[in-house]
Amino acid sequence: MDLAVNTLKFITDSALNVLPIAAFLFTFQWLVIGERMRDAGKIIVGFLFVVVGLGLFLEGLEQSLFPLGRMMAEQLTHPEFLLDTVEHAVTEFTWRDFYWVYIFAAAIGFSTAMAEPALIAVAMKANTVSGGAIGVVGLRVAVAIGAGIGVSLGCFRIITGLPLPYFIAAGYFIVIVQTMAAPREIVPLAYDSGGVTTSTVTVPLVAALGLGLADAVPGRSQLLDGFGLIAFTALFPIISVLAYGQLAMLRERISKSTR
């Protein structure tokens, strides 16, 4: 019963969130363009699907992905698990003893980025526009590697309690330096890669992992330390895609010099 009530609440909230967008689009069509909207019935049915889908998606996050992330973080940081994975039996652990968390975080970041529908769509468009010069799989792997490194480094920051701005500032400094050296064709795509990485598949799991990890590690605050992991997930794919373009340019130069 509670599940049905919560689901209905999420669907109602989704309808209230979608309503302004729908009202603006229909009003703009009628008053500015001055034409009757074609296939209005299908569009209305589509909006209904969007509302119901968003409601079910939010309920799925609440019932499954967020608890799963918290459970994974609690298990990976549980003292009994750490005692089984470190060579010395101690009651206090350093950041080095959480290496399983870093490996798991990197795997989560890589796998969720590879599964992102938005990234798949962008990679296919980039392949078409570039005439095949940018490979679909190559771009997805480059983005996923960056996402994996970002999530892993973000978990390291949560465990150590180091300030978030230091990591973000250093990361964007690297991006600025890479931007000046990378091929111009890859720069806009690299900047978009961070946005498409943090979408429907990645965000729920990464956010749940960050909040669960901050809750499980002693001395960490979910509000101060749990958030910010998505920023790492968005930043490091930019670095990895720029590096992908730089490596491609370097390989082309080496190929020309050996001819």
Topology:
Elements: H1 2-33, H2 40-76, H3 79-85, H4 99-114, H5 117-129, H6 136-160, H7 164-181, H8 187-197, H9 202-216, H10 222-226, H11 229-257
Helix pairs in contact: 1-2, 2-9, 4-6, 4-9, 5-6, 5-8, 6-9, 6-11, 7-11, 8-11
Polypeptide structure, described:
With 259 residues, the protein is an all-alpha fold. The chain has 2 domains: 1-62, no CATH class; 77-257, no CATH class. It is 80% helix and 0% strand. It is built from 11 helices and no strands. The chain has helices at residues 2-33, 40-76, 79-85, 99-114, 117-129, 136-160, 164-181, 187-197, 202-216, 222-226, 229-257. The longest helix is centred in the first third of the chain and has 37 residues, at 40-76.
